Amino acid sequence: MTQLILASASPRRHALLTQLGVSFSVQSADIDETPMPAEAAREYVERIASEKAKTVAAFYPNCAVLAADTSVVVDGDILGKPADARAGLAMLARLSGRTHQVMTGICLIANSSSIVESVITDVTFAGLDRATCEAYLATDEPYDKAGGYGIQGLGGAFVTSIQGSYSNVVGLPLHETWALLTAQGIPSHLTTGDLRNE
Ligand SMILES: Cc1cn([C@H]2C[C@H](O)[C@@H](COP(=O)(O)OP(=O)(O)OP(=O)(O)O)O2)c(=O)[nH]c1=O
């Protein structure tokens, strides 16, 4: 059976793939994530996910490799991880009281082919005051997350509604990932009926 590698250092992605009951190992891919000039958000997350997968696949040609990239998108602008509290404050101010998109590109290299797709979730934030943003930025939660918030943590308090996949916001859309893996013959507990570890 083909071995699956998750090309990611993200603990959220590890937890989500584990949730699917898929056997995998982990190799992080360190790549330059700078957007190209005028690159559209969807192209960007798909390109970065592909580059992460390719980087790891080059070392493990006989394995299947899964990678993802998540960005927050507001008015077409791509928000990555805030470098510091000042950048985080600017991001939260842009997200306050409105709807933005969270886009995740996923790439699976398996059986000599590379498949890439992206999933979009609309996330609506309540209006945030400066003191609340500053209190949030004093925690360490925002700094390793696109857009400077985590819906699965304290940042969930800012979210009034979402439309689309929740797991996509956290970094790996479960349904689409499962469908991609299944199409390439990579089994999960759903294919094997093995729920003993759940
Ligand atoms: C919006 C949002 C993002 N995130 C996370 C998901 C991703 O891990 C991260 C975006 O950064 P990414 O560059 O997509 O991923 P990463 O650097 O964490 O991991 P790797 O490249 O090694 O796979 O933001 C949340 O955990 N919650 C949220 O609500």
From TrEMBL:
Gene Ontology terms: biological process: nucleotide metabolic process
Cofactor: a divalent metal cation
Domain of life where this protein originates: Bacteria
Reactions listed under catalytic activity: UTP + H2O = UMP + diphosphate + H(+); N(7)-methyl-GTP + H2O = N(7)-methyl-GMP + diphosphate + H(+); dTTP + H2O = dTMP + diphosphate + H(+)
SUPFAM superfamilies membership: ITPase-like
Enzyme Commission numbers on file: 3.6.1.9
Active site positions: D69
Record keywords: Cytoplasm, Hydrolase, Nucleotide metabolism
Keyword Cytoplasm set for record: yes
UniProt-annotated location(s): Cytoplasm
Site (Important for substrate specificity) residue list: R12, T70, Q152
Record-level Gene Ontology MF annotations: nucleoside triphosphate diphosphatase activity
InterPro entries linked to this entry: ITPase-like_fam, Maf-like
Major enzyme class: hydrolase
Keyword Flavoprotein in annotation: no
Cellular compartments per GO CC: cytoplasm
NCBIfam families reported for this sequence: maf (TIGR00172)
Cited HAMAP family: Maf (MF_00528)
Function, as annotated: Nucleoside triphosphate pyrophosphatase that hydrolyzes 7-methyl-GTP (m(7)GTP). May have a dual role in cell division arrest and in preventing the incorporation of modified nucleotides into cellular nucleic acids. Nucleoside triphosphate pyrophosphatase that hydrolyzes dTTP and UTP. May have a dual role in cell division arrest and in preventing the incorporation of modified nucleotides into cellular nucleic acids.
Family: Belongs to the Maf family. YhdE subfamily. Belongs to the Maf family. YceF subfamily.
Protein known as: dTTP/UTP pyrophosphatase
Species this protein is from: Parahalioglobus pacificus
